Amino acid sequence: MKRLAVAIIHGIGSEKEFYSVEFKHRVVEEYVKGDPNNRLEDDLLFHEIYWGDLVKDDHGELLEQLDYKKELTYKDLRNIFVDFIRIGMSYAKSDESGLYDAIHERIKSSMKKFASHRNVDQDDTPLVIMAHSFGSVIMSDYISHLQNNDSGLSNFEGFKTLAGIISFASPLSIYSAQSGDFEKPINKVGSQLEEGLKDRAKWLNFYDKDDVIAYPLKNANEAYNQMVDEDLEINVGSAATSWNPACHTGYWEDKDFIKPVAKYFAEVRAPHDFWKL
Question: Does the structure show a pLDDT above 50 at 276?
Fold first, then answer.
């Protein structure tokens, strides 16, 4: 049987490599548990897109320098805001640091590696994108250029088999207010996606109301309203973070997020002639 490919990209929060390993295990466990007689772990292929190493990790030193009186509170939360400000300012085509091009090149090479997986058919394997935080901005920008230009890449690497988008903790609504690349949403349905799957492709946007970086997306403008299927408010984080902005990094471990994600994967892979070899 064909597999469903899932590419995951992180956002701000100083993520380390292999940040999604435990998350993938939790999603697969939930997915199989929903129908153990008909679902297998191998139904889902995950791949992690990591770009955190491209950002110089000096925010800790900066905070220590600024907090010379040693009186500032919410250090972890301040790290998130510093990350957001620094990366947001650096991620621009005109930025001399080269971060913009470096991140896009990392996505390209990472997707090329994913496409080489023995269970990926570069012509028709369906692909779902999961984008956390600023990662949703990056992927929107990257995919937009591919959907509007002939990239010369395979269907899979060029996101032409896109079968849905899951954005979470996303600030994309803020960027959509700008004219240019973010004003119109990317298409959640790839141009070469099999006909039997096109009606199943969805854009689900998850946010916690206490997460000050995350926003609903459907009301950004009419184009986003049409393209995004649902804004889903959930409560994520631990007892110490679920009620405040520090919940921004809590989506990865929370069942309120994991369960609907696994449910969506199951809906995409529901029995259909498409999946027969």
Answer: no
pLDDT in tens, 90-120: 777 656 678 899 999 999 999 999 999 999 9
Alpha helices (H) in 72-201, listed in sequence order: 75-90, 99-115, 134-148, 172-176, 195-198
- b/e per residue 38-72 (b: at least 16 CB within 10 A): ebeeebbbbbbbbbbeebeeebeeeeeeeeeeeee
CB within 8 Å of 166: residues ≥ 6 apart: 128, 129, 130, 131, 203, 204, 205, 206, 261, 264
Rounded Cα distance between 237 and 55, Å, is 25
C-alpha span between 85 and 66 (Å, rounded): 16
CATH of residue 238: 3.40.50.1820
Q: Domain span at residue 146?
A: 4-275
Note the Cα 254 to chain centre separation in Å. 16
> Could you tell me which residue, 239 or 126, shows the higher pLDDT?
126
Residue 186 CB burial class (10 angstroms; 0-12, 13-18, ≥19) = buried
- Domains identified in the chain, total number: 1
* Spatial separation of the C-alpha atoms in residues 114 and 46, rounded to whole Å: 9
